[in-house]
Fold these 3 entries.
Entry 1:
Amino acid sequence: MIQPLLIPQGTKEKRIDTDFYVEGYATTFDKPYLLYEYDGQKYFERIDRNALVGADMSDVIMQYDHSGKVLARLSNKTLGVEVTESGLFTFADLSKSRAAQDMFEEIKNGLITKMSWAFRVTEDSYDRDTRTRTILKVAKVYDVSAVSIPANGDTEISARSYFDGVIEREQQERLERRKQILKIKLMMEV
């Protein structure tokens, strides 16, 4: 079982309360993706689901295409990163600068829909038959970026209202309570 390496002040359950909220996956686990093609040969990369165990994620930043201005940052609590079963979940408040607000608008309008991440590898393996590099251990995560062209097409980023998540959870809780009540009523009738 994957254990979260870092659960910032606002986890998925306590998302950052802002009108400029974005979330997505900077990488996914155990899904090979086409990294590049050379001379007709395809080369793949895969991130092992345990690659982030012990990784330094002490001050990850969010950028666009891994460069330029910092849009959000872990240390000032405008960025959160969480290791989940699926990959590296990322959520951010993009309200703190004009550049961040502009990025929010581009994500909200569907101009930017994917993510990437910058990291340092300490252990990997290579399968010559499938031409797949597997990242087994990451030493440090430097950034998570909204990107125009991702290496991993399974990543995603979207703009959401903070309250979308709250409403979803409340609806799920109401549904669960109704199930419990119906179960009790059925037991009483027997």
Note: DSSP finds two helices and ten strands in the chain.
Entry 2:
Amino acid sequence: MFDSFNISGSGMTTNRLWLDTISNNIANMNTSGRPGDPETVPYQRQIPIFAQVLQRNLDNAPGTDRKQEGVTITKIVEDQNEPRLVYNPSHPHADETGYVAYPNINITNEMANMMAATRAYEANATTLKAAKDIATAALQLGRG
């Protein structure tokens, strides 16, 4: 019974972190840098790497069988795509040819990811509520 609480909780935590990452990408999509200049590199899109968690911790002592299941983000990597170049010779970060480097972030993709993360969070919240309702109903049966 409690496994479903742990799994849904880990999913909600992971989806919240995914939403935070997406929000950070959107907030930084207009940061700029000078093309080819390592000192003014524009923001790089962050991508979370998800992994399933299937662990069983067994000790020799009775009653210490613990199981952890769910999902986690193992790391957040930077997108290695080339920055988007925009011609703006009056910008302070413009190079000698007049181009400014911006992060290669597509707002449409970020919004689609945001909707997916939100739906996944809602699904985990619904599952958690259903598990809680089942546990409550089982306790009510035990009282009867």
Note: The beta strands are 46-57, 66-78, 84-87, 99-102.
Entry 3:
Amino acid sequence: MKSKITNYLKEIALFFIVMAIFANLVSFYKSSDINQEPLKNITFTLMNGSIYNVQKGEPILIHFWAPWCPICKIEASNIDFISQKYNVITVAVQAKNEDAIHNFLAEHDVEFKVFNDKDGFLAREFKIAGYPTTLIYDREKKLLFSEVGYTTTLGLWVRMWWAGF
């Protein structure tokens, strides 16, 4: 009986290892076309009406997501947690309307800064191929990390901490 349980646990562990490797390969492939240029000084008019200017001196995380995306829903609390300590701008793409974005934020109880990319201009400019996509820039606005798909809170926190050096 113990050997059956041990075999099942080994199979489950192997499954998760293979899936993690597969997910990282897919992320690497999808992020290979992302715009690698340093982040320009851009200004975002957020959904709450405030203006946010990207400036040198602090790392920034730019997170592209869509209200219909199931992985974005799972990852929303991770992004919200990181946004409480670091500079985070989220870019809502492919939203049917602003109500869909507001509903997403309320449903997931998140308060991160949101730019509504109504026409998909920023997504095209950054060459985003899938959602969610997270970009982390260092103090000089050079792209350090790009991730397509789910990222843990710890993974985001470590990358933002690293970008702050």
Note: The helical segments are 2-31, 70-83, 98-107, 121-125, 153-163.
